[in-house]
Write a structure and sequence with these properties.
103 residues; alpha/beta; 40% helix
Amino acid sequence: MSEASFLVIGGEGFLGSTLVKALVAAHPTASVASLDIVQRHFTEKAAWTFYSADLTNLQDLVKVITQSGATTVFHTARPSFLTCSGSLLLTAFTTGFTLDRLR
C-alpha cells in the first residue's frame, strides 16, 4: 500500500502550520504540502512543499490538489473576520464542502 500524502489548506497559519509539522513528524516518508496565499514558515521548508493559491478560486484549488497528489486534504484556512467581507468568509468556509464534491 502506498503512503498517504497530505495537503493542508491554510497551512501557513497558526493551526495549519502546527498540523503540517505534526504530519511531517508522524509520517516522515509521506508527501506533505501546505497551500496558502503567502508563505510564512521557512525554517523547516525542506520537509514539505508550499503552494501559493487563492482558496476562493476553484481552478487554483483543483490544480494544486492535482499537483500535490494529496490523498488527504485538511482545510484550516480562515480569513480574518476583521478585514474581509461576509461573502468572502462564506466562500472560504464552504470551500471544504466543494472539495468534498471533487472526490
